[in-house]
Amino acid sequence: MAPQEYASNKPQSFKNHIENVAIVGAGGQVGKYIVEELIKTGRHKVTAITRPDSTSKIPAGVEIKKVNYDDYDSLVEALQGQEVLIITMAVTAPPEQQTKLIEAAAAANVPWVLPNEWGFDGANVQLGKDIPLGASRTKYRAHIEQLGKSSWIAICCSFWYEYSLSSGVETYGFDLKNRTVTFIDDGNTRINTSTWPQCGRGIAGLLGLKVLPDDENDQSPCLAQFRNNFVYMSSFLVNQKEMLDSVMRVTGTTLEDWKVTHEPSKERYESGLAELRKGNRLGFARLLYTRVFYPDGSGDYETSKGLHNDILGLPKEPIDEYTKVALQMAEEKVH
Fold first, then answer.
1. Fewest CB atoms less than 10 Å from the CB: which of 39, 82, 90, 156?
2. What pLDDT does residue 334 have?
3. What is each CA distance from 283 to 54, 189, 239, in whole angstroms?
């Protein structure tokens, strides 16, 4: 392990804060919230890394650099002078894209990389084995370390609440339009879950920390304490029954208005795995979400590891407010 560095030992030109931030997926589901919150702080110059044919709407105040993923030099050039690279891409994106970005970041001497790791606890070894994404995420983190130029920080925010509540029975088990819900086991297993705005605030809070402690007496939070490690954030620790309670409050319905069924978690996971092997992507969603709802505590990292919400300056959120967002998304089929 490298010895602890201190800002007081650095050259006078050293700045102990993050200014230049590049992001891939600036107009995406979580990316736009991250960009909005970074811009709102007034502390950062944000650059969106996009493909030439991208039609994503990039928030105002963001510099845009278009890159060709088949042109390594264009990636390196776009990342020159950046202090942080944030990668937000769909799970369906070609896996070599993230590898190319990581290697370009190393070549451009970008000190920090937040890899495309938004969701379940990547430090949970068994969870990583049971979910197909686990091995690749471990590989990307290892690659960053092996290149020796950048450090990674992985974001554990669990599933996005408003997206997952509105996406149908394969995610949180709800069909909001038809008022049906499938409880995994008894519906009492609590998991952490985060809203998109909370994720945006969390990244802005993280990158607003000083980079290094001032000296050996400085105990205040800094970015370096998360070097090659995980940040745990969350909006709610909630189970499916509590989600249904929120939905009923917002819609003015009662339990009699809903069709409730149950499915054992192991059976549901295995059926998702079987569907995935047939090439059905909905099977992947089913196994992914179900595995986190296993009654083994995998989805509740708040209890087992604690949260960094306070360090990041995150507020408590009213769950019903985001349940309303989910209901609107389901009505409009925004996914």
1. 90
2. 55
3. 29, 21, 22
